[in-house]
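User: Predict structure, ligand adenosine-3'-5'-diphosphate.
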Amino acid sequence: MDVIEKVDIRDEEGNTMDYSLYKGCSFPPHVVGNVRDLVANCAKLKCRQDDVLLYTYPKSGTHWMHNILNMFITGNFAYAGTASYLEFAKIDVIDNMPSPRLIATHLEVDLFPDDIKNGIGKVVNIVRNPKDVAVSYYCFLSSMKGVGFTGTFDSFLRFYLKEEFFFGNWYGALKQWLDIGKTYPKMKIFTLYYEDLKRNTLPNLKRVVNFLEIPRDEDFCKSVIDNTGFATMKRHHETESKHNEQFKDVVKDGVLPIYRKGEIGDWKRWFTPAQSELFDRVYKERLAKYDLDLVYE
Ligand code: A3P
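Assistant: Predicted complex:
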């Protein structure tokens, strides 16, 4: 049987980061239950043709896209809060959600439900530039308890660049999507870059609608934009987000610290030139064979 390895890394300044390694995948401590059960339950989850699975590497705009997709799917503009995640919600909760289901996940693609890999349901994949993700993740983890990180940004970056960093590391996560046509040719996927969504929202929302094959016209898309702007969502989150069972042990009152800045290029206020060079070097090496044009500012 595959072993669940508990990893507790500690750097020279004494900062620690805990996670579980199982079947080569890394899971932060706040995933639900035992990772072996989680992996088994996810693989056999029964999917439906009208399921939409939102995949993101953490801090890539999951809440933003969840709310956008929810508006398109339900046809109304109510704030939908935080998604139910494959790895944070109990599997029964996911199993019993009424159709059409919108589910989120940060799990590596190999751990997706077999049905999704075989083309039952659709997958929306959001990618954000890794430097802004790093800053957003650092700020997020620094404000959590139990799974938090108490060190400096520099020490966080060293963890973040490790191959075994949470959920397969940002570059590993991206690679799986760049190769997806070969690995899971039947999966129905739509990939969208956070930066494109931010800069050219309307045309990209129309692309989302096309992918979903749902009849929503341009006026509907414009209302979605009005209702999912950063300031609007932040206000809803602060006033309406109630205790969330999925995160009850890791954040105060179960409400996640999500709406920080919502900008492209905030990393420039955090990275020193040396950190930025190191980062560029590591990512260039790791993604050398791909022709990528990521937007950093
Ligand atoms: P920052 O920390 O850079 O501000 P996730 O939902 O995957 O955890 O991602 C959180 C990030 O998405 C945060 O980034 C958050 O501010 C940003 N975000 C949330 N809603 C947004 C919106 N409507 N427009 C742009 N960015 C948004």
